[in-house]
Known about the structure:
Blueprint: E1 7-13, E2 21-26, H1 30-40, E3 48-55, H2 58-68, E4 80-81, H3 85-100, E5 110-113, E6 118-122, E7 128-133, E8 143-149, E9 156-161, E10 196-203, E11 208-214, E12 221-228, E13 232-238, H4 261-271, H5 296-299
Parallel strand pairs: 5-12
Antiparallel strand pairs: 1-2, 1-3, 2-4, 6-9, 7-8, 7-11, 9-13, 10-13, 11-12
Amino acid sequence: MIAHDTGFVYVMRNPALPDMVKIGLTTLLPEERAAKLTQHEGVPLPFEVAFRALTMRWSQVEKLVHQRLAGQRVNPRREFFHASVGTAVETVRECVLEVNGNDAWKVGEIHPIGGQDRVVLALEAGEVFVLLARPSLFGGGWEPLDLWQAHADGDQLEIYAADMPDEVAGFSDGDIGGDDDPVPHLDAAGSVANGVLIGRERLAPGDRILWMRDGEQPGACRGVVFEAREYCQIACRTWNPQVSPEGMPLILNCLERDPSPAMVAVSQLALRLPGPRTWAPRPEPREELAFPLPGPERWLPQLRPKKDRPSRRGRRSA
């Protein structure tokens, strides 16, 4: 079962249409969509994928992009715009942040992640995460295990549900493979690089992540809680790498700010929440692998051969 899934919003160009871009969505690989467009759009030259954003709620992202660029739309029934690639890309990035950012998730409820879920969160600089765990299902209370921080607007935190602990690895846990990118590319040929990996962590069933963002009003803070119902692989990446005053790369585990008083208050409330629905002990650090860690097609099913992909009935590719 998939409660949360990912697709792409793309920007394409065509040499035969030099003053236009096409902005659409697909649950396939964008290259596959470009090949179909080349067959059916009646243009003499093939479409080229200039940009792709891996995102949740891709239909909402696409709709918002089209609204923002409505004044440059060539035809209201077609997805072509008189806009530069740079303008289109920047608009897509802004809309991804709005649709999948902290404000888009409900506060006051626990968002479970399990099954075949794939969650992609769009981050703003200064947002803070707290990793919470319990030593036992039946008691002991919540313990904060780690603090993470987003360092640039547009950073992305990905959470992928797994079937077993041997599929996931964590940098902070000292696991072998904990500093390797689980999804280093976004195309089948492996030629389209993903963002720069700045964090890889793992969750055990019952772990929770508290995602906090300071509100616009002083003393306000939004706290969104996710709970792992399965083992989960976390990857954090950036397209705008930041460095510390000493010149060191800022990774997910580098806390460069003090949590605000409102964040501290929200964290204290999270520590008093009831226990998780499922629980398993956190695995010990692994210095050896019984099996190789999964490849990127495990976490991004679009990279699998078509015959091996899960069914996506009712999901438009445009």
